[in-house]
Structures are given as C-alpha cells and as structure tokens.
Amino acid sequence: MIWRSIKWIAGLGLVAAIALTLLGKKTFHVEATIPAPPSAVWEVLMDTAGYPEWNPVFVSVSGPYEQGGEILNEVRDPTGEILKMTATVAELIPERKLRQKGGLTGFITFDHQWLLEPVDGGTRVTQQEVDRGLYLWFWDSSWIEPAYRKTNEALKARVMSLGGR
Q1: Do residues 69 and 46 touch, judged by C-beta distance below 8 A?
Q2: Which of 7, 29, 126, 133 lies 20 to 30 Å from 39 when distance is taken between CA atoms?
C-alpha cells in the first residue's frame, strides 16, 4: 500500500516536471531595416572576428559558421556579465538565414535565427529565438529583446560604416 503511494507520488512528480518543461516556452522577435543589400549585411554577420568591434551583445563568436559547425557565443547580459553558450549551426542559407541551436534539453534550450529578407530600401533583419525548458520559469528574460534591438542597431551602424556595399 505504501509502495503504491510512493510510486503514485513519484509518477505525479514526473508528470509535473514534464509539463513544466513543455509549458516553459518563450519567444523573442525583433526586426530592423538596413538600407543595404542582404550580401552586405551577411558579410558583417559572417565576420565573427569583427564582432568585438561592433556587437554590444554577442561580444565574441568562435567556431565556423557552417552547417553542423560548433560555435561558442559569448553574450554580455545587462549586468555586464559574459555568458558562454555553445551552439550548433542547424541551418545556413547564405544571405538569408543563420540558425543556431543549443542548451540542455528539458532544462533550457534555445533556437536562435538571423533572417535576412530583401525589401524596398534594403534588408529586413530579424532576430527570432524560441527558448524552452524548466529554467524559463525562474529566469528573468526581459532583457533579451532590448539586447537584440541594440544588436540590430549596431549591425546597421557597422554595415553602413563599411559603405553598405
């Protein structure tokens, strides 16, 4: 009888943990228009060695931006702390899309995309991210979209400083 109760409570705890993990989802989305062709924007995004010169959030990116490549992103949070996150390049379409995924399944995962779309007057740049996991219930992610907006603004300034070619 006691054993049955223990198994029932353990089962309920497992179901609750799975539900919290599945229900833990946050989506972030920011856009900017840069008055330059996608090729000029893409060139800056692919020049990871130049990130420390212009990028206020992704202050360092190490590893190859190639399909399946392992990347180490160093991200500055609002307190100035540098967070290190390993990602895998899940999708790479030159001058269109860079998609990176990483994290610990169940705890916290991220799926971050840079999307470039030609529009009248230049390129629409979208950063879109979906985070999932139990940790989202405890993490203050309110800084993510403002940080991505700052990054898009800095990207625009960098592309324009290079002549937007």
Answers
A1: no
A2: 29
Pairing state between β 25-34 and 122-132: antiparallel
Query: Of all helices (H) and strands (E), which one includes residue 26?
Result: strand 25-34
Phi/psi for 95 (5° steps) reads 65, 15
- List all residues 6 or more positions away from 78 whose beta carbon is below 8 Å from its beta carbon: 143, 147
Q: What is the pTM of this model?
A: 0.84
Q: Are 125 and 118 in contact (CB under 8 A)?
A: no
Q: Which two tokens stand for residue 101?
A: 């995924």
Residue by residue, pLDDT tens for the chain (165 residues) are: 676 667 666 665 565 555 554 568 999 999 999 999 999 999 999 999 999 999 999 999 999 899 999 999 999 999 999 999 999 999 999 999 999 999 999 899 999 999 999 999 999 999 999 999 999 999 899 999 999 999 999 999 999 999 876
